[in-house]
């Protein structure tokens, strides 16, 4: 399997070029990515990121960009500031917004500000820590506060108050802006929930579990109505929702979050451009391990934006087998596709209850994991776990992984045809299921003329209404 990384010579050159403050900034930016780093050493950090398939030219360029080392972007990676900014605008950043904010704030503080902060934090840090903090940087102080559980991505009130007290209202406003925009991060008991997700999920029925949802959300509305709440369950016999129309509401701006996880690296840009054109908020991630993918699925499922959006899309490209994906892991069982779906069901993501949830999966099946089939388009339910919860559409293509060996840079025909159809202005006027019937036909014709690159296609859904991505 191809290993995506950065040449060791480049890593060595970057390490030699960074000064002490820049090395500290890089270690701070990556603290969440490698929490188990044995010592604060940049070389060890870069090697660990590389070993865990987390260090690519794209992610390394982001780190250099955050440290404003635009010269190294050009000299070592052969790219420029504008190119990195364009990529970040299309694909979410690897480094958390919280760590980026703290790093930027550290650049705006002078020595007097730091001394004042240490004095104000005297009771919180304790005298022993105060003595240690006197000659330390802002990032070192923040790291110490994190260890004491006084500061975290969700808890910045202490630092905000300190900035107000030292008359740095500009920095306090930046924290307030972050608190308003940033998603909630799992802490405390939430982390236990994240660990519990390692276990397999129970089999789910067509009914989203009974729960309290607001009237407007029943129509996939934009905002919660707090004044009146009702209980909702969807019976397996096909009952309809109160006041439900014949089509899903698709009017929010953006229409919803589109999560792209491409562990092959050939299709992410094409997919991202297509769903941006469809007015989705695109979050794109390349070359994730199974652990990092699980964390990302958990984070996206908890986004507050879902309550205001009308839809959710997940596109996944990976090697795997008929039941799961391997991501960038080289051994062990795959990540169950049933689990991918389960992050976004009504019980685990109430803000998506009653709203369409679309999954498009391109799985490259490794030798020994592929079930033989004789049809050109395989729709046998045994090939994958069928999504049984309401309002889900599941479209999955499986191809032999040998395709990647013969043509390592080739795009998935399934995803190419899908994106072409979705952005076609005439096709977009059709219900999504009609578009996917056309996709089936294209894959059928492809298989007839490309015997060495066969696609097995599965299309399952529990949609209750017509779905138009055009918003008509």
Structure description:
There is one protein chain. This protein is of the alpha/beta class and 472 residues long. The chain has helices spanning 8-17, 20-29, 42-51, 57-66, 70-77, 81-90, 97-107, 111-120, 122-125, 127-133, 138-147, 157-165, 169-181, 189-196, 215-218, 268-277, 290-301, 337-342, 402-406, 413-423, 432-449; strands at 211-214, 229-232, 256-262, 281-286, 311-320, 324-325, 335-336, 357-365, 392-400, 455-461. β3 (256-262), α16 and β4 (281-286) form a beta-alpha-beta unit. α4 (57-66) crosses α6, α7 runs antiparallel to α13 (169-181) and α12 packs antiparallel against α13. The longest helix is centred in the C-terminal third of the chain and has 18 residues, at 432-449. The model is unreliable at 183-218, 221-244 and 370-383 (pLDDT under 50).
Number of helices: 21
Separation of termini?
44 Å
Structural class: alpha/beta
Query: If you average the pLDDT, what whole number results?
Result: 79
Number of strands: 10
Features:
alpha/beta, six-stranded mixed sheet, two-stranded antiparallel ribbon, 13% strand, globular, Caspase-like_dom_sf, cysteine-type endopeptidase activity, repeat
What are the SSEs and their pairings?
Layout (H helix, E strand, L loop, with lengths): L7 H10 L2 H10 L12 H10 L5 H10 L3 H8 L3 H10 L6 H11 L3 H10 L1 H4 L1 H7 L4 H10 L9 H9 L3 H13 L7 H8 L14 E4 H4 L10 E4 L23 E7 L5 H10 L3 E6 L3 H12 L9 E10 L3 E2 L9 E2 H6 L14 E9 L26 E9 L1 H5 L6 H11 L8 H18 L5 E7 L11
Parallel strand pairs: 3-4, 3-5, 5-8, 8-9
Antiparallel strand pairs: 1-2, 6-7, 9-10
């Amino acid at each position: 399997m191809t290993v995506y990384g950065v040449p060791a010579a480049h890593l060595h050159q970057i390490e030699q070029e960074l000064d002490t403050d820049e090395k500290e900034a890089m270690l701070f930016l990556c603290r969440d990515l490698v929490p188990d780093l044995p010592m604060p050493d940049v070389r060890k950090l870069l090697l660990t990121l590389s070993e865990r398939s987390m260090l690519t030219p794209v992610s390394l360029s982001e780190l250099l960009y955050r440290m404003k080392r635009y010269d190294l972007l050009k000299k070592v990676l052969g790219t420029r500031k504008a190119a990195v900014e364009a990529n970040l605008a299309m694909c979410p950043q690897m480094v958390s917004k919280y760590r980026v904010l703290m790093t930027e704030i550290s650049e705006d503080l002078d020595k007097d500000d730091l001394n004042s902060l240490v004095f104000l934090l005297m009771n919180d840090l304790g005298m022993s820590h105060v003595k240690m903090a006197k000659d330390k940087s802002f990032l070192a102080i923040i790291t110490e506060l994190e260890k004491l559980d006084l500061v975290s991505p969700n808890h910045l009130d202490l630092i905000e108050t300190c900035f107000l007290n030292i008359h740095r209202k500009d920095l306090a406003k930046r924290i307030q802006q972050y608190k308003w925009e940033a998603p909630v991060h799992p802490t405390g008991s939430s982390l236990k929930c994240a660990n519990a997700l390692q276990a397999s999920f129970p089999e789910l029925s067509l009914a989203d579990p009974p729960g309290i949802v607001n009237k407007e959300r029943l129509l996939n509305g934009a905002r919660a109505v707090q004044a009146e709440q009702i209980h909702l369950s969807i019976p397996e016999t096909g009952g309809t929702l109160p006041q439900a129309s014949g089509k899903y509401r698709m009017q929010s701006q953006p229409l919803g979050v589109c999560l792209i996880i491409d562990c092959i690296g050939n299709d992410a840009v094409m997919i991202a451009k297509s769903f941006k054109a469809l007015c989705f908020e695109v979050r794109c991630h390349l070359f994730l391990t199974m652990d990092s993918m699980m964390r990302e699925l958990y984070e996206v499922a908890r986004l507050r934006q879902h309550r205001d959006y009308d839809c959710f899309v997940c596109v996944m490209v990976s090697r795997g087998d008929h039941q799961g994906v391997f991501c960038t892991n080289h051994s062990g069982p795959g990540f169950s596709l049933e689990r991918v779906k389960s992050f976004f069901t009504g019980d685990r993501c109430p803000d998506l209850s009653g709203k369409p949830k679309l999954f498009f999966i391109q799985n490259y099946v490794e030798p020994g994991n592929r079930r033989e089939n004789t049809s050109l388009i395989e729709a046998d339910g045994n090939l994958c776990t069928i999504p049984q919860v309401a309002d889900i559409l599941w479209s999955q293509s499986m191809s032999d992984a040998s395709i990647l060996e013969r043509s390592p840079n080739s795009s998935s025909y399934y995803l190419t045809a899908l994106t072409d159809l979705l952005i076609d202005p005439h096709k977009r006027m059709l219900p999504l299921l009609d578009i996917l019937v056309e996709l089936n036909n294209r894959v059928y014709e492809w298989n007839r003329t490309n015997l060495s690159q066969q696609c097995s296609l599965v299309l399952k859904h529990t949609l209750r209404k017509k779905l138009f991505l055009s918003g008509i």
